[in-house]
Amino acid sequence: MKYTLILLVPIFLFSDTSFITPMEYASQLYKNPRGIGCEHCHGINGEGKIVARYIDKKKKKIFSGPVINNLDFYVFNKALNKRKRGMPRYFLINSEIKALYFYLQEQKERKNDK
Questions:
Q1: What is the C-alpha to C-alpha distance for residues 15 and 1, in angstroms, rounded to an integer?
Q2: Do residues 48 and 67 make contact, with C-beta atoms less than 8 angstroms apart?
Q3: What is the dihedral of CA 73, 75, 78, 80, to 10 degrees?
Q4: DSSP 25-46
Q5: How far apart are CA 30 and CA 8, in angstroms?
Q6: How confident is the model over 38-93, as pLDDT tens digits?
Q7: Cα–Cα dist 59/76, whole Å
Q8: Could you tell me the pTM of the whole model?
Q9: Comparing C-alpha atoms, which of 52, 38, 53 is closest to residue 103?
Q10: Alpha carbon of 108 to those of 30, 37, 55: distances in Å?
Q11: DSSP 73-108
């Protein structure tokens, strides 16, 4: 059984057929790229979201994920490859970053069409 799987893995990795569409793949990446999904902090469509309200040193504070569906690709790509306070590092490859970016653009367009 183990050897059968080893022989079949290259077929699935390098075949042209896919079980999901590029948009389905991008949607899954957005919802759960490497643990916690982007939507938890940036909202379902990348519109930004308040994650928590808290008090620090007797001052009210808000922790939120910024709007990311209005960024150009260069800024989006750079932000995902840079360590930021509160933002997990996902170590995404270029094709994953492109998929996420185009997913957000599609979601934004669909929302505007309604």
A1: 21
A2: yes
A3: -80
A4: HHHHHHH-SSSS-THHHH-TTS
A5: 28
A6: 899 999 999 999 999 999 999 999 999 999 999 999 999 998 888 777 888 778 88
A7: 31
A8: 0.72
A9: 38
A10: 14, 18, 33
A11: HHHHHHHHTS-BTTBPP----HHHHHHHHHHHHHHH
Local structure of 19: helix, strand or coil: coil
Which are the contacts of 49, defined by CB distance < 8 A and separation ≥ 6?
39, 40, 41, 42, 43, 64, 65
Please give the Cα distance from 76 to 68 (Å, whole number).
7
DSSP 66: P
Contact between residue 76 and residue 103 where contact means Cβ atoms under 8 Å apart: no
The bridge status of strand 49-56 relative to strand 59-65 is antiparallel
